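Design job #97: recover the sequence.
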């Protein structure tokens, strides 16, 4: 199998309801976006890493630490759409695939990106990551997205509910009776598939659960799931930001 030329794209939208200017927020002397870029650059699975933003302040900041950056539209409904525009701006013919690295995960582990790229290489066009649930509290948290898979680890369904429902009436923790998987928000796409999925209209299942991934599944696209032991940590609230600052302050 020929090696995939993979572009890592870090969407970094400036506006945020709870954390305005999120990409530029300081975490232990470095901005959020710089920390993400530096983590992504540690993996050899990516052939290039670029920040995709909608704000000139982010462009200038990324250039200040010698990062690559492109200016994209401020009207994209999702990071997936921003990733596709970034691919076209960098050069559609230069890359076979794109990895979407969340711009608000300053502690993304390079091994996660390696695991995602490995899943992408054997996928039908889309890949993402999941972690085995080890605490029943995750099963009752609508902020966690759960995944059911086929035996080959292609996704069957994504849900904010704990799927499947255990009807056996057994006792003990649910996670000990079934291997539940929770989503880790990294995505990889073959370039041709990315071009196709950004052209799809929102689907019924997507609207019901507010999960973009369901649009792809509902339209027949295969999503391969790679397993990781590394949890994700998304900085989405002021409390998350304080936790991130605490983590870098701990020796």
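Job complete. Output follows.
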């Amino acid at each position: 199998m020929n090696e995939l030329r993979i572009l890592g794209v870090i969407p970094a939208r400036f506006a945020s309801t709870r954390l305005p200017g999120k990409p530029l927020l300081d975490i232990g002397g470095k901005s959020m976006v710089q920390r993400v870029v530096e983590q992504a650059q540690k993996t050899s699975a990516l052939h290039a890493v670029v920040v995709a933003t909608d704000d000139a302040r982010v462009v200038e900041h990324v250039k200040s630490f010698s990062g690559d950056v492109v200016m994209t539209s401020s009207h994209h409904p999702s990071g997936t759409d921003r990733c596709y525009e970034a691919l076209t701006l960098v050069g559609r013919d230069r890359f076979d695939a794109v990895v979407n690295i969340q711009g608000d995960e300053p502690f993304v582990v390079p091994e996660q990106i390696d695991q995602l790229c490995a899943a992408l290489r054997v996928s039908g066009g889309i890949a993402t990551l999941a972690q085995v649930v080890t605490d029943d509290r995750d099963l009752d948290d609508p902020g966690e997205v759960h995944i059911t898979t086929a035996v080959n680890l292609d996704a069957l369904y994504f849900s904010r509910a704990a799927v499947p429902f255990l009807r056996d009436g057994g006792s003990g923790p649910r996670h000990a009776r079934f291997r539940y998987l929770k989503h880790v928000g990294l995505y990889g796409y073959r370039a041709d598939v990315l071009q196709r999925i950004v052209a799809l209209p929102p689907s019924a299942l997507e609207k019901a659960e507010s999960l973009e991934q369901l649009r792809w599944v509902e339209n027949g696209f295969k999503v391969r799931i790679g397993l990781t032991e590394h949890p994700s940590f998304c900085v989405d609230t002021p409390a998350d930001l304080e936790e991130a600052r605490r983590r870098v302050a701990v020796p």
